[in-house]
Amino acid sequence: MEIPTSRWRPRLPRTRGRWAALVAVLVLLAGAGTWTAVADDSAPTVHREDRMMRMNGVSVDTSYFTAGGSRPRPAVLIGHGFGGSKNDVRAQAEKLAADGYAVLTWSARGFGKTTGEITLNSPEAEVKDVSGLIDWLATRPEVRLDAEGDPRVGVTGASYGGAVSLLAAGYDQRVDAVAPMITYWNLADALFPDGVFKKLWAGIFVTTGGGCQKFEKRLCEMYERVAVNGKPDAAARTLLTERSPVAVADRIDVPALIVQGQSDSLFPLDQADAMAKAIRGNGAPVAVDWIAGGHDGGDAESDRVQHRIGQWFDRYLKDDKGADTGPAFRVTRTGGVDSTDGAALKRGADGPTYPGLTSGGKEVALEGRRTQTFRNPAGANPPSVSALPGIGGGLSQLSSLGVGLSLDFPGQFARFDSAPLGKAVRVTGSPTVRVTVKADQGDAVLFGKVYDVSPDGKQQVLPSQLVTPHRITPGQQGRPVELTLPAVDHELDAGHRLRLVLSATDLGYASPAEPATYTVTLDGPLTVPTAPAVKTAAASMPWWTWGLPAAGLLVAAVLLLTTRRRSTVPAPDPDLAEVPLRITGLSKKYSGSTDRYAVRDLGFQVEKGQVLGLLGPNGAGKTTTLRMLMGLIAPDAGEIRVFGHAIRPGAPVLSRVGSFVEGAGFLPHLSGRANLELYWQATGRPAEDARLDEALEIAGLGDALARAVRTYSQGMRQRLAIAQAMLGMPDLLILDEPTNGLDPPQIREMRDVMIRYAAGGRTVIVSSHLLSEVEQSCTHLVVMDRGRLVQAGPVAEITGSGDMILVTTAGEVSEPLAEKVAVLPGVGSAVRTDDRRGLLVRLDGATVPGLVAELVRLDVPVTGVGPHRRLEDAFLTLISGGSA
Amino acid sequence: MSPATELQSLAEAPGYQARRTLPLRVEAMRQLRRRRTLLMGGVLAALPFVLVIAFAIGGTPGGEGGGRGGSRINLMDVATDSAANFAAVNLFVSAGFLLVVPVALFCGDTVASEASWSSLRYLLAAPVPRARLLWSKLVVALGFSLAAMVLLPLVALAVGVAAYGWGPLRLPTGGALATADTVPRLALVVVFVFVSQLVTAGLAFWLSTRTDAPLGAVGGAVGLTIVGNVLDAVTALGSWREFLPAHWQFAWADALQPDLEWSGMVKGAAVSVTYALILFALAFRGFSRKDIVS
């Protein structure tokens, strides 16, 4: 191999094209960099003051958060959840403070360091404390005032803290906006829904508060009474209702962002529904946001919700008209699982108005026996299972994915199935159904649930794991009653069924311990709310899902368009149309060597019908020249024209050139014949032009043609490659060292082939480092060495005529002797060689034997007689010079 | 005939047209009978049989039909429920690595092997224009890659029907897809896996134009896929990982959810297509100006 390679050498950008491409890429990167830098700007430092405040007979533990400057700003109060303390909301407080609010958090009575007993937001206790905090805020210089003693203030908080925000807005007219989260409107409805005691949650509620003794005495007694009886009484209802926001329903008239959880069996969506209706009725702006999580667990979507609350307060406290308060109604829907981290995927759906729980009612007929009878087991045991407070979060999350755990015991429930749904139905709100219920004794307590049943009927899913309890008193029995079922947002696929189950028991509730038999008669279809105005937002894709491919396309286009064009294609030269090859000023340096030229300033011309020998020692630049001729490598300077057309990579005129350069190149797994056929097909030319049989005859491979090329010997490949070069009988045939690996008879045959080929007016170029090879078959010669042209011309001109004889002698030949020889008959001339130990004789009619006889007669000490080859002398000199 | 047109007619051999050189059919024929092609096809076609035997020996995965509620469920648990599930499991076990190999092989080997056989220079001197050569080779290599990815689920479906019967696709998250939806969803999986492997294809193809060692190009592409997987495991990279193609390699599982979830697949496809476009452009750019010395 005479060509240095540099495949893995890193190259610096050096052409204009490369620079352009590089710049384009840098611009894109810089764009990404700016974006990162913007996203990175840091928040101002938040200052926190902790302080115990005496008010209303208790000591309230507070934290006050501000950031930057003393400019008047609105204030925000953040309440904490039941069983927690002010520390739970610190992160949210710091964030709001950094956003330009004066934020006050506090621990409610009985929690954290705050003293006093828990009264569940009594107007005289916890709610009054909030007014005290607002009084304090009004004294702060950095808090913006609407009037003397009336600061601009919003209240937010989750659960217990959410309720106090509503209550504060009801009792204290200074509150300007609220954002209650997952909280209650009427605690009596939440804990005693339809007169059924929600025993599991109530117990957890009391325990979370630190036990009954931490509560106000009245409350503790009430709880213990109800828990023992398993049934709430009127006094209990009244007590809890008085302390709930519903008590001041007509006085809450500030903008309210209501965030409620879908996975919430403690404060279900109907609590938010009542809240929204009442506050909107008072004329205040209301937005409702159903998050995925809730008290049962699941994703609380804290980041999104807190951001939305910030926007809400920006709009209604800072009076920032540009703040995006979001849609009037939004619901988070769970799509599936993120395959990259296994997290549930969420997507928002929203509507222009809050649809309520019964919008877009669609009637779904229920099949099966209309009247069903089942038992309430003694002791209400074993109970059906739906939501499991505390550990149920994962379950209600799974229900949206089509998995869930819920149990009904045979004989303890009535079941009504719909036909398979013709198309998918999205339930948004509370389905309702009319039934007639009878019990053989006392109240009938039923737990209503609506399952999503898979087409094969094997799997049933209880959306959000929710049930609604219903107490049907003897007075209501025997007449149709309307049951409102759990409020959910759930999609049923086409082919699924709706299944209404009315169960006698539920683990989370207290139901009658006396055994009873219930009879349920269906009185109508299931009415399913669909909230048609609520549309799922198209999945929001980050900008780069389209930006990145577009940028990629741009970079790709830049890379392709800035590719350095080989100098513009020179026009064909009509004068050279009949000249198979003309090379002028050709130079090539490989990038590995800066000083050494592989070919330097080479020029020669080949005419039609010639067999041109390209002769030179190894490394002379023959193969490099031929590669440039084939358009495989680009010359640094100079020009190659074939039939007048300049050569560049893939120049069409190359289709008139057949080549065999530096060994065969075949697909080893294919047969010789298949290789040639596929090669010809790759040229795209008509099959009949290939003249395959003639080429195969030259190859002379016989039966071996059907064998895979990998089994061929070197000589066989060589012959096949030459046959491939001759496919289509090209006008110019290039053969590089064609006789390598051939045996003498084959070499002889190859010579004949070349001579015959050129005889038809075609042209052959043969390169070799062996004089004997080219001398016998070529008409013309080009001699190269170290990249340069040494000599060019007809063979005869270079080798001299055939009648020049070299006579070598044993001793020196004297001048007179040489003259004697010169005048012999039939001798044209005779000159002494440079070393004087020989004579160069040109025969002019004399024969060699005749000459030898004459020389012997003249006493010339002849040691040898042979043809004189000037070329060989020159060539040997070149080679020896090259290796010296 | 005027001299000019006469000269024009001599500009190329009769019947030669650059756009007809190296037709896709010819390139496909050249590649089809190679041992690596046949071996790859054989491995992919054999995998379903291997799995059937494995399930037959090891028993039904996931134990009994019940008791799946609650705990995390994977595709393996429902592998033998139906032919569709079996096909999905075949894709699941092979998408991470086994399907990377044919793509890297077909795209990485295509130019480099011609260079190593020396046949590249004869094609270029035929002359097949360089862009045309790359285009044919790329299309055929991608076609073979796609064929490999289609072959696996097809064989798996056939084997699955024989072994477990035809039925709806039971989803790992619970529920089942209607029978009519099954084949389109599986097709979507194959399409996404293919698109997500375009980046491997691009890398392998680019390397293939840079080196004469076919194994270098194939190994380089597979190696970088592994590096990508390793980087994706570095959770500290946070959202930067979203720009790693490997981050989305299992996004096709979104097609097997009750509600078809597009976002992961769209993102994954966007990332893959972006890298692939640039790498393909680099390949064409580099090759168009390269000195062919092989």
The fold-level CATH name of the largest domain in chain A is Rossmann fold
Poorly predicted residue ranges of chain A? 1-14, 29-41, 392-397
Record the strand order, biggest sheet of chain A.
Answer: 1-2-4-3-7-8-9-10-11-12-27
The structural class of chain A is alpha+beta
Mean pLDDT value of chain A: 86
Note the run of SSEs of chain B as H and E: HHHHHHHEEHHHH
* Residues in helix, % of chain A: 25-40%
Overall structural domain count of chain A: 4
Biggest sheet descriptor of chain A: 11 strands, mixed
Q: Largest interface here, residues on each chain?
A: A-B, 93 and 89 residues
- CATH architecture name of the largest domain in chain A: 3-Layer(aba) Sandwich
Span of the ends, CA to CA of chain A: 21 Å
CATH superfamily of the largest domain in chain A: Alpha/Beta hydrolase fold, catalytic domain
Into which percent range does the helicity of residues of chain B fall? 55-70%
- Please report the number of helical segments of chain B: 11
Q: Compute the CA-based radius of gyration of chain A.
A: 51 Å
Number of domain units of chain B? 1
Q: Using the alpha-carbon principal axes, give the shape of chain B.
A: globular
